[in-house]
Amino acid sequence: MALVVAKFGGSSVATAERIKNVAARLVRRHNAGDQVVAVVSAMGDNTDYLVDLAHSVNPNPPVREMDMLLSTGEQVSVAVLAMAIEALGVRAISHTGAQVGIHTDDTHTKAKISHISGDQIARDLAQDKVVVVAGFQGIDSRGEITTLGRGGSDTTAVALAAAIHADLCEIYSDVDGVYSADPRVCPKAHRLDSLSYEEMLELSANGAGVLQLRAVEFARNYGVVIHALSSFVEGPGTYIKEAEENMESDKMEGPVISGVAHDLSEAKITLRHVPDTKGVAALLFERMAELNVNVDMIIQDVSHDGMTDISFTAPLDDVERLTPACQQISDQIHAEGVEINTHVAKVSLVGAGMKSYPGVSAKMFRVLADVGVNISMISTSPIRISIVIDADQCQLAVRALHTAFGLDDASDGSDSVKVVR
Amino acid sequence: MALVVAKFGGSSVATAERIKNVAARLVRRHNAGDQVVAVVSAMGDNTDYLVDLAHSVNPNPPVREMDMLLSTGEQVSVAVLAMAIEALGVRAISHTGAQVGIHTDDTHTKAKISHISGDQIARDLAQDKVVVVAGFQGIDSRGEITTLGRGGSDTTAVALAAAIHADLCEIYSDVDGVYSADPRVCPKAHRLDSLSYEEMLELSANGAGVLQLRAVEFARNYGVVIHALSSFVEGPGTYIKEAEENMESDKMEGPVISGVAHDLSEAKITLRHVPDTKGVAALLFERMAELNVNVDMIIQDVSHDGMTDISFTAPLDDVERLTPACQQISDQIHAEGVEINTHVAKVSLVGAGMKSYPGVSAKMFRVLADVGVNISMISTSPIRISIVIDADQCQLAVRALHTAFGLDDASDGSDSVKVVR
Lengths: 421, 421
Hints:
Chain A is an alpha/beta fold and about 425 residues long. The first copy, chain A, has two domains: about 5-175, Acetylglutamate kinase-like (Carbamate kinase), CATH 3.40.1160; about 250-420, 2-Layer Sandwich (VC0802-like). Chain A has 13 helices and 20 strands. Chain A has an eight-stranded mixed β-sheet, with helices on both faces. A four-stranded antiparallel β-sheet of chain A has the order 13-18-20-19, sandwiched between helices. A four-stranded antiparallel β-sheet of chain A has the order 15-16-14-17, covered by helices on one side. At the A-B interface, helix 1, helix 2, helix 3 and strand 3 of A face helix 1, helix 2, helix 3 and strand 3 of B.
């Protein structure tokens, strides 16, 4: 008997029929003797509908009211899922974030979980019920409804799993696990059996959309084992867990590289010919922080004659906000000007094994040079190498690296699982 | 400065555009110096959508989950209305039934309000906010979400008005007041300026759909003055208040008859040739009560040779449920059989003035006889006379009575307000 938290995203509960499928899956699990807590997102595009509704009456709706509004989406899906489970003869009970004791800070629309009281869930499980919890939402100390923002439902699931000491946190989505690359870009990509938290963090942070970065961080901090699965096809999925456990269960020497991630959602911003005086970088990135711009890679060239270039990447969504500020700083420090390139790709090689294999970056650059890809920025972590290249060369680079680092699927592809989007 | 509770039904907030209109109305009120608490139903047919969704996964959904589900409808409308008010530059705050302290018993889907704590509303009003409260819902002593069932939003509004000692409870709907008859049946019907609680109770209980019986009862018990208005057209509406107040403000001698109501939603059930022994009626109506059948009029004929007929009316919706029970009792007491007529109308003459005017019933029967309407049941209260007739004669009867009792609109009709449905 295991205690399992199972999280289902919006596409998994988009219709009454899909909700019934999720119910059937949970009931099989319950009848096999497991204790089951389901965490559910809002149905399909219901959240988009509600956001549109809000903007149609107020272009800048108050965040408190936004949370009142958006939290209804998950309340609908948990109630309907509980009904569907009961229809199959198993007792079920749904809870809002407030009812189940998911306490957050008071930052409406992007609240952080402060603590979870698992008492209610324990009582429900003791009564042999399947517990269905609204993801994405909580309650603050004043009793106000909050939402957790992007990736909130994954985070709810992982945090709940930590709070009730679940054996496993299953995350069901429309893909059947974590892949060595995005199969839409790299047809030879294969599903990974398991990954360390650190590898998953690097993949999530660098464009792999399967799991939200925030949820993976939470899982690492509390040692929650995540199992990423498809809600549409049966399959072994991907485990995300401590690297040590990987080493025990899998072969002693893991592969050098686990995957190739890519990200087309960033822009590259360059301040050219900056006088290399103290505090210029501080000035620039303090201003970006004030503007809440999520700066990713930062490169400062070696100084020539007291002049340097400063480049960084930031989300495309932030470009409009950061451009005038960069221009102003450029004028202020007498730089030559600001260059913005919105047509770039970030390609990352991720693998816990690369720590003990020197020469990975050298090989990466050689492979790319051989296929004619020009690298414009480089950044590294102990288990990742990221480069920025022209967006048009993204697919070429991902495929070349995937092959060169031995990640190509060995099978003939006949039993490969179709990715449902 | 007045403290006003204003309730808007589902059709008044069916679209973003209509919500903006409601917001504008509330803001005008607020800017004129009034303190405003709005009570809102779910948007248009949202509740129907949710009910259908529930039934598509479970033909018999658990009532607790039904309340979890349905309560989201009002939560959406209050959040969006609060946003729309804020867009007009006035501070607003929305509340669920739970947040605003509407405490109920634990009868899911038809809970009764036990008490309301007005503290939250008082705090919000003190901060110069328009307060927007979800109608139809509350919270029980275990923290579970409950809904109030039919007429719940009207009842929320009146109960809130009582709890915070509001000067007035405005009920906005798609009609501009209470009419002397249903204008769709009787084109000469006119809007009433005011009515006593008792008259409104009789009208609501006998087919007039403007206000829910339950809300009017609540208003009478707590002395809340109701003002029924249209949310689509400006107009003086109808006041419902203590009869004494009516007498003071209107002419000393009120009209004998206030209105003619009709109801096509009932069936007439007759047990024929029943042995007139003790306890037969008790047996029958105890059984109906067990089946939760809402019995309305009851007639037992004078006994002939120890035999009698027992007739009663009950909602058409209950006929399927009550028929086998009636048949069984008929067999048990050796009656001749059960006759069910689903094609009947109940027509009621209502007026506080009839108490002091003898001969109203005689005149009523004469008028109907003259136009050829056959009466099959009669029941009376001090301020009402109801008859059951063939459904085909309903319109004829209503029009004839409306004219005979001097209720026809004296105007040429050019300024009569169109009823929006």
